[in-house]
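testing teh design pipeline on a random one, pls ignore if ur not involved
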């Protein structure tokens, strides 16, 4: 295993891959560097003298400016480096994108839906239109699970509860209706029960306009106020829905139909060295086979956004990406929030010092492919290849946004670990082997092998094969635990 890594030839820092004690002498790209203080795992240390005000360079880019003179071998972190980012910026399109070369086709065993869409799960979902019926929805879920033995091709029954659907205004109300409709139409659901109350703003007649044309065998509706016993009526409808969903069986599907969401959380100093580059390499491989990936977490693009902008396939997409970034900055400003109030305490403990440091690692999940689509929050993906999606960094909100955009699976890289899930299978990818060993009940895939003895080529193929196995029915750890989270982006007033 390596002790340290210098990521880019232009860097003036290196990263500790294990805890390094004060006074250790290390070979950094042919130069001996002696540490002058303890360096925690995942953290940076200077390999060249850095004067106050000079840039600190990692990944070949500035991640902030030194706040004091920093000597060779010194620990570099939040105490001596600060962000160099400003507020709204002017951007110029400098296209550098190159299409990923096609590779041989691949297949998974999925579900072919009647509308021509494809799913990787055959679940029955219960979608409440309003938070008032959440407890009813969970009671129905518990009773409906007893029916699973009657319908062996139905993989699970899941109620996705949320606190919204009423007392909302403007964009918040639109967000709720759009995300709920996206979930109702998601191909991972073989059938859906839409459970309403009857007096809510986002009632079932209103929601039907957002759902659009539908198969009445696949989607059924219950308005709770219209029945003496809404649970018994719902179970009656669910029995019919499960019978319909039971008619689907897995069959070979071309991997070009896969849509994979890309997300990170609880990042550490190894995120941009192991897990995120690995996911980026996976993204390129899937795109080379005609598939689609979606990158989100707009605030965690700040500081690395020009790398994505210059990979846009055309100027129209560049303009959309500029709006993606600046609209989010204006959202922060409208709430008098600090745009660069990031990274989180856990990120800092793991070795990330500034937002640029975090963003340059985060955006590596996009690989090298050209940006082919830019999506608003709640918008469904319609262009194959790499897409950017407007959503915040919050894990539950962003992963839900990826699912609502059409992601069949979410790849989630983490250096700290988390048990959370999303409406679709959520693959947890550890940045380091220690986390993989400690939280094996959370972690599905260990990218920490990249700093041990595995090559990127080997690990990319291993991850691609693993994702195909998940698409073919292999349950991830969160699914085994029965975890299914769901969160809608709230931005405005609650009445």
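output:
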């Amino acid at each position: 295993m390596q002790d340290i890594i210098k990521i880019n030839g232009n860097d003036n820092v290196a990263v500790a891959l294990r805890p390094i004690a004060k006074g250790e002498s290390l070979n950094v790209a042919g130069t001996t560097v002696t540490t002058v203080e303890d360096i925690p795992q995942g953290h940076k240390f200077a390999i060249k003298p850095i004067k106050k005000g000079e840039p600190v360079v990692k990944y070949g880019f500035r991640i902030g400016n030194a706040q004091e003179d920093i000597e060779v071998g010194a620990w570099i972190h939040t105490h001596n480096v600060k962000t160099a980012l400003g507020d709204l910026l002017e951007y110029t399109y400098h296209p550098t994108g190159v299409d990923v070369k096609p590779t041989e086709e691949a297949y998974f065993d999925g579900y072919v839906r009647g509308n021509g869409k494809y799913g990787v799960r055959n679940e029955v979902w219960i979608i409440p239109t309003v938070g008032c019926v959440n407890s009813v929805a969970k009671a129905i879920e518990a009773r409906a699970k007893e029916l699973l033995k009657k319908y062996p091709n139905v993989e699970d029954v899941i109620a996705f509860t949320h606190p919204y659907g009423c007392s909302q205004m403007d964009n918040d109300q639109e967000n709720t209706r759009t995300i709920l409709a996206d979930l109702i139409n998601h191909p991972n659901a073989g059938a859906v029960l839409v459970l309403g109350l009857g007096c809510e703003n986002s009632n079932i007649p209103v929601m039907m306009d957002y759902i659009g044309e539908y198969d009445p065998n696949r989607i059924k509706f219950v308005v709770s106020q219209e029945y003496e016993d809404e649970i018994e009526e719902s179970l009656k409808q669910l029995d019919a829905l499960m019978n319909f969903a039971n008619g689907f069986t897995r069959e070979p599907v071309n991997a070009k139909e896969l849509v994979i969401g890309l997300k990170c959380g609880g990042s550490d100093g190894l995120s941009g060295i192991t897990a995120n580059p690995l996911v980026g390499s996976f993204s390129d491989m899937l795109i080379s086979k005609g598939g689609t990936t979606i990158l989100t977490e707009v605030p965690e693009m700040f500081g690395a956004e020009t790398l994505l902008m210059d990979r846009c396939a055309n100027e129209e997409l560049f303009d959309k990406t500029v709006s993606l970034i600046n609209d989010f900055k204006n959202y922060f400003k409208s709430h008098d929030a600090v745009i660069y109030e990031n990274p989180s305490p856990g990120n800092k403990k793991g070795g990330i010092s500034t937002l640029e440091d975090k963003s340059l690692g985060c955006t590596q999940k996009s690989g090298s492919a050209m940006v082919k689509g830019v999506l608003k929050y709640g918008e469904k993906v319609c262009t194959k290849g790499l897409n950017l999606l407007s959503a915040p960094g919050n894990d539950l909100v962003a992963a839900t946004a990826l699912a609502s955009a059409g992601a069949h699976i979410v790849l989630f890289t983490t250096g700290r670990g988390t048990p959370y899930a999303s409406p679709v299978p959520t693959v947890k990818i550890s940045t380091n082997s220690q986390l993989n060993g400690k939280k094996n009940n959370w972690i599905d895939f260990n990218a920490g092998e990249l700093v041990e003895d595995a090559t990127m080529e080997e690990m990319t193929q291993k991850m691609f094969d693993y994702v195909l196995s998940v698409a073919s029915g292999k349950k991830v750890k969160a699914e085994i635990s029965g975890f299914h989270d769901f969160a809608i982006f709230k931005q405005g007033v609650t009445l």
